[in-house]
Design goal:
Elements (H helix, E strand, L loop, with lengths): L25 E2 L3 H5 L8 E2 L16 E6 L3 H16 L3 E2 L8 E6 L4 H20 L4 E6 L5 H10 L5 E3 L7 H10 L4 E3 L7 E2 L11 E5 L1 E2 L10 H5 L3 E2 L2 H13 L4 E5 L17 H8 L6 E5 L8 H7 L8 E3 L7 H6 L6 H14 L4 E8 L6 H14 L3 E6 L17 H24 L5 E9 L6 E5 L5 E5 L8 E9 L3 E10 L2
The structure holds S-adenosyl-L-homocysteine, iron/sulfur cluster and FE3-S4 cluster (F3S).
Length: 502
């Protein structure tokens, strides 16, 4: 693994701190390098270990990780927490108690970044009060040249920046940050290998994330992820299956398989014939009550996958299938590589094969050049598919992506107005879908007390709907049958009909 430093392009960054020597700990990112896709084989390593001299370095000390962005980041945070715990650190949620604070960041839209910069600013006074505090920035933002430059120039109270491919280097980087007066920057732009045996400190004991692949090769023209996460790399099926079996043994009730495009699973593995459908067909036989996955790109959603999903069992009948736009022209500009008709045909096949399937989606409004007519095609597609829910976004240009070079000619007011119309439509449909569930008895996995009322429990249906009902805390982690008594746009209320032991 050592020596994977091809991404470093020292000349592209001119740190704004005269007199400081950056050479030793300075390996900044390069978007240009991140765009490349090499043919080199990805190695799988099973030999991760905390270097001996760092093993007890955290004893008596605390860490705090702030996580932004998607499930991939949530899970990376669990890995970092696992590594820190092995170094002797304990977790805290009190900033004042923390000796290390890591910001695991997201670069997907500008507002995600603004939020992080705002909170990094607030850390200045904390750092003043506690000069020994190590403040680190990792995740997708740290993979961006412009972000690293901005931190170097304006956020000099940051001690450490490391990338999404450098997580396994955390012990060494932390040591450097603790003993060096300079900001330590190590961001590899070329994706790293797969490191199998990193420790994990999972949040909760009911649901667990399981990575099946890393990276993305789709290069949708608006999206930064292929640059921040590197090329598609699938974990070996036997490693995924062993992890799921272990989670089942530990009593987890639900797993979510993670990848930016899970349907591309296996394409990079030897032979290339073992796909996501095959993997699910094996996981289906493992004794874990619920299996979810996210995210599915419509392009690679093949018949084999539909056939396996139709077998049901622990494979839940909920599919998140981002469409992004209902206009074939816009889809083309986005390089999504399917048409409106192809997407609708896929939905038709899925609905025919999987009774009661629930679909959700992601949609971007105001993509460069989007006309009112094209936006209306999105509205009509939403109506036609009948999603139970949708994540809707205003297009945000990301530096270095092809769309950022297109003329962003839809005025912000128009984008906002389109977003509102889309949300109004989706809310109406979501409510209709939920109202249709009134009176039905649904299986709910109880996850905990409701956020607002400790007497009320919250859980989710197989289709990922949030249900609130009155019940005893001893039900947490169990399955109960709940009769739906009231439907709202985003949640259901109900009453216990029966308890089911699984
Ligand atoms: N890999 C997933 C998506 C990850 S990003 C997939 O392809 O389905 C989550 C969502 O953020 C995307 O589906 C898209 O709707 C939105 N998104 C991505 N880039 C964006 C941008 N530049 N502006 C606005 N929304 C964006
Ligand atoms: Fe981004 Fe497209 Fe990859 Fe999803 S599939 S992460 S939207 S490039
Ligand atoms: Fe954000 Fe990176 Fe996920 S950009 S959405 S945290 S892959």
């Amino acid at each position: 693994m050592a020596g994977r430093t091809e991404g470093a392009d020292l000349k592209s960054v001119s740190p704004n701190q005269p007199g400081k020597d950056y050479s030793r700990y300075f390996q900044p990112p390069s978007l240009k390098e991140a765009k490349k896709r090499g043919k080199a084989d990805v190695q799988v390593h099973y030999d991760f270990a905390i270097p001996e001299e760092m093993a007890g370095i955290g004893r008596g000390k605390h860490f705090l990780i702030r996580t932004y962005g998607c499930q991939m980041n949530e899970h990376d945070s669990e890995t970092m927490a696992g590594i820190l715990r092995e170094m002797g650190f304990a977790q805290t949620d009190d900033e004042r108690e923390a000796d290390i604070i890591l910001f695991n960041t997201c670069a997907i839209r500008e507002n995600a970044e603004d939020k992080v910069f705002g909170e990094l600013g607030h850390m200045k006074s904390l750092k003043r009060d506690n000069p020994h505090l190590i403040l680190g920035v990792c995740g997708c933002m740290s993979q961006e040249e412009a972000v690293v430059n901005k931190i170097l120039a304006k956020y000099q109270h940051v001690d450490l920046i490391f990338g999404t491919h450098n997580i396994h280097r955390l012990p060494v980087l932390l040591r450097d940050a603790m003993y060096s007066k300079e900001m330590v920057v190590e961001v590899w732009s070329k994706e790293g290998d797969i490191i199998e045996n990193m420790p994990k400190l999972r949040e909760g004991s009911i649901k667990a994330w399981v990575n099946i692949m890393y990276g993305c090769d789709k290069f949708c023209t608006y999206c930064i992820v292929p640059y921040t996460r590197g090329k598609e790399r699938s974990r070996r099926p036997q490693d995924v299956i062993a992890e799921v079996r272990e989670l089942a043994r530990l009593g987890y009730k639900e797993i979510t398989l993670l990848g930016q495009n899970v349907n591309a699973y296996g394409k990079d593995l030897e032979g290339g014939s073992y796909g996501f459908g095959d993997l699910l067909d094996e996981i289906r036989k493992i004794d874990i009550p619920r299996v979810r996955f996210t995210t599915s790109h419509p392009r690679d959603f093949d018949d084999r996958l539909i056939e396996v999903l139709a077998k049901g069992g622990n494979l839940v009948e909920h599919i998140h299938l981002p469409v992004q736009s209902g206009s074939t022209e816009i889809l083309k500009k986005m390089a999504r590589k399917y048409t409106r008709e192809q997407y609708l045909e896929l939905v038709r096949k899925i609905k025919a094969a999987i009774p009661h399937v629930v679909l959700s989606t992601d949609i971007i409004v105001g993509f460069p050049g989007e006309t009112e007519e094209q936006f209306q095609e999105t509205l009509s597609l939403v109506e036609e598919v009948g999603y139970d829910s949708a994540y809707t976004f205003i297009y945000s240009p990301r530096e270095g992506t092809p769309a950022a070079a297109m003329e962003d000619n839809v005025p912000l007011e128009v984008k906002k107005e389109r977003l509102q119309r889309l949300m109004d439509l989706q809310n109406r449909i979501s409510l209709e879908k939920n109202l249709a569930l009134q009176g039905q008895v649904l299986e709910v996995l109880v996850e905990g007390e409701s956020k607002t009322n400790p007497d009320v429990l919250s859980g989710r249906t197989r289709t990922n709907k949030l249900v609130h009902f009155v019940g005893d805390k001893s039900l947490i982690g169990k399955f109960v049958e709940v009769r739906v008594t009231e439907a709202k746009t985003w949640t259901l209320r109900g009453e216990i009909a029966a308890k089911v032991e699984v």
